[in-house]
Amino acid sequence: MERLERPNAVTIVQAPPGYGKTALLSDWAARTPTARIAPAEDLLPRLAEGAGGTIVVDDFARHETAALAENIVTALGRPGAPRLVVATRSTPLLRMYAWDRGLDVGTVGAADLLATETELADMASAWGAAGAADLHAPTGGWPRVARLLAEEGAAGDYLRDAVLARLDRETLAFALALSANRRLAPAHRRVSPGTGAPASDAFERLLDAGVVQRRPDGSDQVAPVMAAALRRLVPAEEALPWHRALVEELGHDGDAASLAPQMEHARASRDWAVLAQLWTRHGLRLLEVDESAVERVYGDVPAAAIAAWPALTLPVATARAMREKRPFHDVQPVMWEAARRTAQQFEGPGMDHGGDLEKYIFFAATALVDARMDGRWEEQRRIGEAAEERYRAERGSVPDSQRYAWFLLQVFFGEVTAGESTRAKTAGRKVHLVSHDAPESRFSTAAAAAAMCALATLEGAASDAAYWGEQYAAVTREDAWGYGYATSLFALVRAMRAVDRLDLAAAEAALAEAGDPRCDFEFWPFALVPRTQLALLRGEPADMLDEIGHVVATHQGQYDAGGWGTRVVACLRVELLTALGEVGQALEVAESVAGESTAIVPLVARAHLVAGDAARAYELARQPRWDADVTPRTRLGRLLVTAAAAEQLGDHRGADAAFSAAVALSGTTGLMATVVKLPRSVRRTLLERHRRALSEDSLERLFEFREVFETSVEPVRLTPRERVVLKEMARSTTLQEIAKKLTVSANTVKKQAISVYSKLGVHDREAALERARALGLLPPLD
């Protein structure tokens, strides 16, 4: 209405049929006293009257001729001439003649007349139609088409007869090709299928006819209801030349706006090579550009195409998982298995893959995934170093690509799973730097930041964790499916932080978001950490031991390879076994990684403290000396055990010194959960003497928290041969039978049995078996 009020000499309301031109002009004329509605055949006499005001003419196009247009603009140029408002379906001659005479021309176009969602809902309510909220998306806000859908359930015949019948076959084929996209790109305006009219001409005709609708934000679309009408009218084969031409033209642009349309046209033309290349070059970034397009395009690729183009395996698995509405962390195993099959195309770092560097770096990344899943640490490092060398040699001055950032992410994850902490942090900083500078690599940036935050949180490095948490928050999209890996990992970070501050409810909520650790192929060891700590703090260690066993079985290759997972699991099992009172077994587990993990030291020292050997606990907690590899979490654990052991040994001054240092460190790291793992009586005594160093809230939680390691048991340390004899004693009836099975003398077996009795504190075989089962050295009887 406001546009019609402007004092243009001529205002042209131009839109296809059914846009509400007649209703608009009738409503405006009724509320405008100076406006007079006139039929087109009476227009010239009315203009000759020179009475001022505004003359309104509906459906002007049916009467328009060059002579009429010339006479109209001549009359409008005289003094006292009225304004003229006309409605027309197509581009009028009147506009051209008015411009030639220098008259001021205003236009109300189709984009102005398309109803908004609110307007269309009001219209539908006036029609008495149900389901009004569902009308805008399929029609784009075309009023007449929306009413036909609301009242009759279809609008195809109307669009065919009133709109599409006016267009030639070539333009209709072009329109059908455009309808494959939800949002059109600039390339759609300029492409040509080789012969025939340029696309720009056809595109303008489609705009004039309403086949292409211009949105208020300036973008263009073919509304779904129009696309359905085109599919009924035009065979799909007629659009193939346009699809192929558009794939090529969109590929020249290479920007984000062109990726989804290029996917759509490649799928419509069955160009599997292009679809494979798009995933090879852009990967999960395609999800960020348009998740729904990835689901549509890759979800139904034929098996024969996947066999011919193995790079399609991963996007097809991704699309099908999205179609099934499964969360990212639930389908990660499917995606990584697909990557393993793709990795079969990588025959080693010397393969040139047709000279395509991007293709080479893609296959190298999948080969890294393959090696990492099996724990082949040396091979993954060899592949990574060779691929990096070639990439640097051939890249030249071209900026780092999204694919290279994804490759670096796999290098980073490989160092993490191998347990190479220093190398992992260096690789993590590198991938974050490269991906942060590549606009197409937001997913890699978010994943790298989340992983670095997880490592810092595990170490108790609060300032580093805060920094990487800020980096993660700056780039992540928590609502996007394609960011599921990063968001699941960061949920684990939140869970660990909640455990550390003794907020068990928040930890459980975060773990529910993180998903099943069996589905994760990099950070499953970290996924077990907050779960184990929560189980310890809730007094449920036995169930957690079983869960760890199930998770390890899922990742057996990595676990057996002796990487990060092996060391983390050993630490967790030591704590759980200690909580169950099976200190001897806990110490045996600790011995398996004693030379590889400084984190095991405070756990072993605590096990001796629980078993009543304060002197040994003190000795272990104080040794070895501090070094650069000792993390804040490990340092805090050793200080606390030192304080508790010193207190039990009567060294109150030494206990206070160690506890003061521990309280200070706990304040900077927020690791309150480590404090509550002290024996409750000692914890209370030390807290009473250090009340001023803690807030009232912290003091209350630390003071009243339950006993975590309740059972005090003397550790039993059997040699490997003694353990074998003990197990055979549970199976065989006599020592002679045991000797025969072990191919040693009966006297040797007898000596080892006596040693076992002594260590278990018993005097006969049955008592030894009963005691061993109680300590967990043997499985319980069925």
From TrEMBL:
SUPFAM superfamilies: C-terminal effector domain of the bipartite response regulators. InterPro entries: Sig_transdc_resp-reg_C-effctor, Tscrpt_reg_LuxR_C, WalR-like, WH-like_DNA-bd_sf. It comes from the Bacteria. SMART domains: HTH_LUXR (SM00421). Residues 711-776 form the HTH luxR-type domain. Keywords: DNA-binding. The keyword Transport does not apply. The keyword Ion transport does not apply. This is HTH luxR-type domain-containing protein.
